[in-house]
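step=predict obj=ABC transporter ATP-binding protein n=200
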Amino acid sequence: MADVDKLVIAGEIGRQTALEYLEYTFEPGVMYALAGRNGAGKSTLLLTLAGELEPVSGEVTFGGTPPGDVTNAGNIVRVSDPIFLPDLSLGEHIELMQRKTKVDLSDALATWQLEELLPLPPAQLSSGQRQRAFLAIQLYLPTQVLLMDEPERYLDTHWQQCLTTELRNLASAGRIVVVATHSADMLAACDHRIVVGHHG
């Protein structure tokens, strides 16, 4: 089947009304940027690609089936705002994720310099530390498609560069990486740029 392991959209994105018609094939091993002004539809497109929002018309498929289909469970991960359970320390969050996903996050903790923060509850972390922790937990899940909504927010220049490197590595390892971003560095690091809402 020609569509296997590709994420394909051919339809109109939007909620009640169509924002834009898109026809695009996302290939494994490639890092894509979604660019456009605020409100143009970048987040809506990510939700549609993730199968969390139906296209207004047309279809989205991953490996020939809709992204929200049970056969695609775990294949597509959308990363947006950091979400943590308030009663757990960061270390307990990491433990839970490792048990649930069977993924060893020790390298991620080192990459994102989180070891000293493990005893703390997320509420005591700065917004930048929370974002680093959230990325460390989410980026390395065993998924085939990684959809990211402004993952550079709250990060300083050093950590934005670290994020860009990690995303490039994940794409090089064969994932489809799609990033909605306003960061010039992130846009420059991507292989392809899709401008959403360019007709408006």
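step=describe
The first strand starts at residue 7 and ends at 14.
step=end
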